[in-house]
Amino acid sequence: MPKIELETSVELYYDDHGEGTPVIFIHGVWMSRKFFKDQLPFFSKEHRAITIDLRGHGDSALVTEGHTISTYAKDLQAFITKLDLKDVVLVGWSMGAFVIWEYLQQVGEANVKGTVIVDELASDFKWPDFPIGAFDLPTLTHFMREVQDNRVDFLRGFIPLMFKEDVAPEEMEWMLEETMKPMTGVASAILFDQSVVDYRSTFPSLSKPTLLCFGKVEKLIPVAAGEHLKEAIANSELVLFEESCHCPFLEETERFNIEVSNFIKSL
């Protein structure tokens, strides 16, 4: 399990297998690189497959500062620079999509061949002009209080919302272990920031190919979010996964891997 130290003395742990086009998988809020356990062996056969734990998540440094999408994007840039990665494909699930859009906003598209966005909205917040958002203020407030006061039970209720089918006990346990790794204050801080960022104004500047992968089951993210992104982002393609909710890479692994692989080969 290699690690890299950024200039800010923050250590990020990652997995790096295979050769070829670098494909970086970026996890969601509270999650970790282990959620892409079924992608690493598949994509490393033909590409350089990389999974990364963002700061404060997974096995990476449990630092208390810098838990904003803006800082996570800066960490991603530093990571790409440190490893001297060229013409990368960025795969962002949930909050990972925000990290990608923030990275593109900060750095531009010059070193990016394409992006894959997995089940995320332009913004999670229900703004007055964005009613399809996932959270309104009362819901966000409730979530933040649950993270502080009732975290294990809250996560045991939240994790099943990411899947169409019931979560097996053994699956629940490793997911719960991973989502409990961020410190409680960190979990609240990044939940708030990732819930109120809004990238609608960024989309007109994007030109590189984008694959949009959305679960058809709408427990968390509506299909309308994918349709909105398809309209807003030029050169994008929307693929719906009929038997998935928020995690098509775990729920329909074979189809997800093939769809993303074919997209990468088309770039």
Topology, pairings included?
Layout: E1 3-5, E2 11-17, E3 22-26, H1 40-43, E4 48-52, H2 69-82, E5 88-93, H3 95-107, E6 112-118, H4 137-149, H5 151-158, H6 169-179, H7 184-196, E7 210-215, H8 223-232, E8 236-241, H9 248-251, H10 253-266
Parallel strand pairs: 3-4, 3-5, 5-6, 6-7, 7-8
Antiparallel strand pairs: 1-2, 2-4
Helix pairs in contact: 2-3, 4-5, 4-7
Structure description:
This protein is of the alpha/beta class and 267 residues long. It has one domain (3-266): Rossmann fold, CATH 3.40.50.1820. Helix content is 39%, strand content 17%. It has helices at 40-43, 69-82, 95-107, 137-149, 151-158, 169-179, 184-196, 223-232, 248-251, 253-266, and strands spanning 3-5, 11-17, 22-26, 48-52, 88-93, 112-118, 210-215, 236-241. The protein is globular, with a radius of gyration of 17 Å. This is Alpha/beta hydrolase.
How would you concisely characterize the structure shown here?
It comes from Sutcliffiella horikoshii. The chain has 267 residues and is an alpha/beta fold.
Proper CATH architecture: 3-Layer(aba) Sandwich
- The count of domains is 1
CATH class division: Alpha Beta
Spans with pLDDT under 50 lasting ≥5 residues?
A: none
Mean of all residue-level pLDDT scores: 96
Question: Main beta sheet: strand number and arrangement?
Answer: 8 strands, mixed
What is the N-to-C order of secondary-structure elements (H for helix, E for strand)? EEEHEHEHEHHHHEHEHH
- Which strand order does the major sheet show? 1-2-4-3-5-6-7-8
Please work out how many helical segments DSSP would assign: 10
Instruction: Give the % helix.
Output: 25-40%
By CATH, the superfamily comes out as: Alpha/Beta hydrolase fold, catalytic domain
Terminal CA distance reads: 30 Å
Q: Compute the gyration radius: what is it?
A: 17 Å
| Percent strand | 15-25%
GO molecular function: hydrolase activity
Protein name: Alpha/beta hydrolase
InterPro entries: AB_hydrolase_1, AB_hydrolase_fold, AB_hydrolase_sf
Domain AB hydrolase-1: 23-256
